[in-house]
Amino acid sequence: MADTITSDLPICTGYLDKTLEIFSLHQHPFIVVSTLALRWDGVGCLPQEEIDVLVRSTDVSAIVEDLVASGGWELCDNYVTKQLIPDVTMINSTTIQDIWLKTQIEDPCFRYLRLWPDTLYNLSVDCAKIKVPDLQAKDSLLLEEEYYRDPHQRFGPARASSYPDRILPCLQIRAKFLRPDIPIFIPTIEAHLNALLTQLRLEKETQLRNGNFPGRHITLFIRYLYLDWIPARDWILDTKVLACNRELMRSKIDRYQRGRGVIRRDAELGEWVYGKLPWELGINTAPTNGECNLTT
């Protein structure tokens, strides 16, 4: 593959090439979860310092041993615990341990690899999943376009099919290069959303955090997929959310308040006049490019 590159830029080994090889040797899929997965779901969130990967609980020890032996990673503590004011939402207080590893690469794209046992993330490694071109999208893009619900295309996340030039990051920050044959996966939105709902439900029941952001991530799904629009709300509750999570999801959607944005102050009334919600816009206001990401 490198022989076909004619760019003046230096050829860089993908920073996950060796890691992907190790997962492949263990016949274990490389499944990205949490923030990086959400970026492929049309959610406008920024990556953290870590790569979150789902691992079968019975395979964790062997994979960690090989990752450390490769020289690319070393075991470490959760970096948040060393902060002056730790973000407690990232600290796992359950009895199931998550594994943190720190990269040995100079000037890395991501400093840490966080391995999530499937029993901690409440998501099976055998879940429904989608192959993605690289670890992260250049911009947040929606791959599963059935979640773009407005038939009049007035609002919704940017769809990957509409912006092919915004899919891959530049060559120097790609996760894989020498091993393009080893796939990177993310869970489907349905599988990921139900896992997050289960995490949040268990957190409420046990008062123990697993170190993820289930409530925050569910809210981001609501915001960027416009699940507070009644047709989208009813569709996702009826077709995508498991019965055990339905009441919690309904409550999360109904409590969410989307900002309308202040338009102007009416001099005669002496009060602010607010804008319309995206679905209150006229059909003839649909943009010509079919995307209108109104996320205020």
Care to describe what's here?
With 296 residues, the chain is of the alpha+beta class. Helices cover 28% and strands 14% of the residues. The strands form 2 sheets. A 7-stranded mixed β-sheet has the order 3-4-5-2-1-7-6. It has a two-stranded antiparallel ribbon with strand order 8-9. A hairpin with an 8-residue loop joins β4 and β5. The N and C termini lie far apart (43 Å). The N terminus and C terminus are likely disordered.
According to DSSP, the number of beta strands is: 9
| Major sheet strand order | 3-4-5-2-1-7-6
Radius of gyration: 21 Å
Which class of secondary structure composition applies to the elements? Answer: alpha+beta
The major sheet is characterized as: 7 strands, mixed
- Strand fraction equals 5-15%
Task: List SSEs in N-to-C order.
Answer: HEHEHEEEHEEHHHHEE
Q: Termini, distance in Å?
A: 43 Å
Number of helices: 8
Task: Note poorly predicted spans.
Answer: 1-11, 288-296
**What would the principal axes of the Cα set say about the shape?**
globular
The portion of residues assigned to helices is 25-40%
Q: Which whole number gives the mean pLDDT?
A: 87
Give the topology:
Layout: H1 17-25, E1 30-32, H2 34-39, E2 50-55, H3 60-69, E3 73-76, E4 99-103, E5 112-117, H4 118-121, E6 129-132, E7 184-187, H5 189-206, H6 214-225, H7 230-239, H8 243-255, E8 262-266, E9 271-274
Parallel strand pairs: 1-7, 2-5
Antiparallel strand pairs: 1-2, 3-4, 4-5, 6-7, 8-9
Helix pairs in contact: 5-6, 5-8
Q: Would you summarize the structure shown here?
A:
The protein is of the alpha+beta class and 296 residues long. It has helices spanning 17-25, 34-39, 60-69, 118-121, 189-206, 214-225, 230-239, 243-255; strands at 30-32, 50-55, 73-76, 99-103, 112-117, 129-132, 184-187, 262-266, 271-274.
